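An example makes the point: we let one protein speak, the chain in one-letter code, the fold tokenised, and here it is:
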Amino acid sequence: MSTPMRIIDNHVHLAGPGDEYPEDLYWSEKFEEGIGFKALKILKGWSFKKVSDRLMKKELLRLIGKARVIDHTVVLAFDNVYKPDGTYCGPGHGNTGEVLSTIYVSNKFVDQLRQQNKKVLLGISVHPFRDDAIEELEKYKDKAVLCKWIPSSQQIDFSDPLAQKKLKKFYKKLAEIDLPLLFHTGVETSIPAAREKFESYNSPIFIESALDQGVTVILAHCGCSFFDILLPQDNVVQEVVNLFKKRQGEKPEWKLYADISALFSPFRKRRILDDIFTQIPPDRLIYGSDYPNPAKGRKEFFLRPLLRYGRINLIDRNFRIARKWLKYYSRKKGYFTSQEADNIFTNFHRLLVGLDRGHLLH
């Protein structure tokens, strides 16, 4: 008897200031001053409330527990910044210089959530420049479903000569243990970089060497930014599309996917969605919400009270918005079939089974 395909949200964020879990959670003043955090406080009705570790953890687990349709959520850890020579640049013990991390969520903390809640799947984050990066991958290889990077925020300098050997070794290990790499693409507005020059490293062109080494790569957001009406994103989306064209041509062995997290932002250009859904095969698209970022149509977003979000389960809400838009692009536009649209929500389950990680859903 075949196992029913499960609906998985592969892209859910967690953060905390570190007031209760100082070894596992951290965010900087720059993060608190960023547009993403300020918008979250307004949307959740937390403008006059202390946002603590306990509040963030409790709220996320509440929403996951009450989600009616989503079977599992991948909660993402987020590693500290390290320099190519292995120098630690995060908060606290061991850092003798400038703190360059803007947020930190330990793998251990998310793994504990996984053990407490069967709907939580572990998305680890391991910086490739850590001296113990391979050991950290080995530690979680039988528990994690993916590894998450945001190159700009984690300052992963792919061009640094010192980085090349470490990156090659890291990719080799990912391929060996069949652990997918969730690679952020596009301008990052929620988790700012301590140094802006690293924004360019969110381009998918830097991940081709991982694909060549056999790594399963998931390009987050298909190259889009949440505010692509205001930010020039077309070139990054085209770079994502070009990789898929390359896979369909001279690189058929590439294990390349993309997730649709934050794709249905109220600030999205329709033309960009047309490009994505006509040029990326639907069997290569994976569902993700990018919680706590909201998804809404522009009319609804601007004309209804924003504080209403405080009473909405955003994990469920983002799923319903995505399903609505995918039905539109399948039935009205005819870009793919209705069945292919439905499969996008279970494609990550299929991927995990193919990578012999299906047991993590039990």
Q: What stands out?
A: The domain at 8-361 is CATH 3.20.20.140 (TIM Barrel). The chain is about 40% helix and 10% strand. The chain has one domain: 8-361.
